[in-house]
Amino acid sequence: MRKVLFVEAKLLVREWPAALFTLALPVTLLLALGQIPDLRAADPDLGGQRSVDAQLPAQMILLALLTASFTVLPSALATYRERGMLRRMSATPVHPARVLGAQLVLNLGVAAVAAVAVIGSGRLVYGSRIPVQLFGFVLVFVLGAAAMMAIGLVIAAVARNGPTASAIGSLVMFPLLFVAGMWIPREIMPDVLRRISDYSVVGPFVNAMRDTWAGEWPQFPHLAVMVAGLVLFSGLAVRLFRWE
Fold it and tell me: Which ranges carry the ABC transmembrane type-2 domain (predicted)?
């Protein structure tokens, strides 16, 4: 497994634009959107917090996770299958499952670095808060990342090649960003849309992230939705996934 991780890491470095995009996009958007005066003012809808304190960083971390889960991960695995690499590996001691595990670990690592960069840049530039409930933050990040990457594995399972995987991932990612409150804050969403957000993986993820920033333990319903999404989509990915 160490050798597979080393090789996959070398390939990731060689294909550095994808990793750089995952890292740079959320940080750049955070710094750019933070220039809007309203986002640096206390917002009654957010309990008196500024958007740059918790709401905006949580959304940027979500963006990093979705980028890794819905574009980088599915594209890489679909390309491996398209080129017959997984089929050939299945006849060697390097089982394709190790490649799958290495991809998950590396993409999670890239997303974790992006999360640290978002929190650090917000703190340095805008004096944003850092999560007070750190253990809860890590728990939410891991559960949310696992659930989103499980959805990415479903996309990788049904996509015929890398470009198709990227296209499907984009089609799924942008509606999820919308219901997560990227463009319309959840607090002013219509009831129907807010209910959809409550039962998506991304809505509870952002809400739980905000709770950890405020020093509160993530609410059980938010954690339950993420766990349910992880179980559902992991099972679906296993059922649909084909090595060739």
Answer: 17-244
110-140 exposure pattern, b = at least 16 Cβ within 10 A, e = fewer = bbbebbebbbebbeeebebbebebeebbebb
Helix axes 162-179, 55-67, angle to 10 degrees: 160
121 with 30: CB under 8 angstroms? yes
Nearest CA-CA partner of 65 in 126, 133, 140: 140
For 42-83, the pLDDT digits (tens) are 766 666 677 788 788 888 999 999 988 898 888 888 888 888
What is the DSSP track for 138-169?
A: HHHHHHHHHHHHHHHHHHHHH-SSHHHHHHHH
Burial label for 99, CB within 10 Å (0-12, 13-18, 19+), is buried
Phi/psi for 161 (5° steps) reads -155, 180
**What is the pTM (predicted TM-score) of this model?**
0.86
Locate all alpha helices (DSSP H) within the chain, ordered by sequence.
Answer: 2-14, 16-33, 55-67, 73-82, 85-89, 96-126, 134-158, 162-179, 191-198, 202-213, 220-240
